[in-house]
Design goal:
Number of helices: 10
Largest sheet: 9 strands, antiparallel
CATH class of the largest domain: Mainly Beta
Distance between the termini: 87 Å
Radius of gyration: 37 Å
Number of strands: 27
Helix content: 25-40%
Shape: elongated
Length: 443
Amino acid sequence: MKNTGLLIAAVVLAALSGVLYWSNRHPASESTAKASIDTPPKILSLKQEDISKIQIKKKGGEELDLAKGDAGKWQIIAPKPLGADQEAVSSLLSTVSSLNADRLVEDKAADLGQYGLAQPSLELDVTTKDGKPQKLLLGDDTPAGSALFAKLEGDPRVFTIANYNKTGIDKTANDLRDKRLLTIDFDKLSQVELLTKKQDIQFGRNKQEWQLVKPKPLRADNFQVEEIVRKLRDAKMEASSTDADVKKAAAAFASGTQVATAKVTDTASTQELQIRKSKDDYYAKSSAVPGIYKVPSDVGQGFDKNVDDFRNKKLFDFGYDEPSKVQVHDGAKAYFLTKGSQDWWSADSKKMDSASVQSLIDKIRELSASKFVDSGFTTPAIEVTVTSNDGKRLEKILIAKSGDNYIAKRENEPALYQLDSSPVSDLQKAAADVKPAPPAVKK
């Protein structure tokens, strides 16, 4: 039995020695070389921030040259100087900086013509900030049509790359140009002026809040003003604009009817956008970019407004802030409510039912004008005062009866708001329904 164990051990040792001998006689370079063929290297591997120039040359087409300026902004240099869409250029750089091959076709290609690389359909010249250029050549599609042949100039190898890479590289000036009609810094916008057929309307911004300046100082509906700002920010020439489209747009603009002129001002400059309508289409001319362009209909329609469309119809500004004090005078009835740490209290220090107080606050918050009027305010029948924003905001509203409706005004402001009778009745009922909190249950 002992001899049998020794015999087995000797056989195992001999087998291991044979494996080691074979391994030494057959180095790993063969498998490594095979893996190298199965996994071709990157064709281009660059840092996006190091790329300073790009040239795209299309067979039978015009050359597109891009360069990065001193401030890090990309510009189109040829076929003519144009501002560049920074996001579109960034997408191009993403494709160019890390370009992977699908497979290695030939290690040392002698006949480039069979791949369409002797006269490539597309050439991409990339220059980095150290001045070193690299030229990528793109040739014919593969027989299967899902890829195309590619190589770097100066490198004898030919690869295939996926077709979507060519789509990401084959760009025109129109693809990469900045299509914004207003290039101002909208994050630093301080003033917007809107000249329409109806009137001259001007807005000024204090921090994030907009106010009407013209035709007279008035509270503005921040949402409505921001909607106009959004339309101006997003106003772009149509993506397919060709030279023929621009000429057609210029003729339509010249014969069109004036819709509006918008002027926007940031900390550095003022830019102007004129919008006209021709038949059912809208066209725009900007002081920021040359040419006249067709714009989407919603841009033109968004400016056909009057000052009342931008006025704040809400009577109170506290919005969804939690008030700290609420006072309501309704004829001979008076309600004084103060918020403690968590609870509401009456003037005589009674803890109040929070649900009934919240109902009153909601009715006050919802008070909104059905329209704006110039007269009709008489002796106030109802007074509502709300303190909010940690005591920094005090708002007082006076409400007077006017026929079947009511006229309201904010204290120390000339504007008059017409209210329907229903929300005022709801307010009066909610005030009358405020009640003390139920007594605590004794344990």
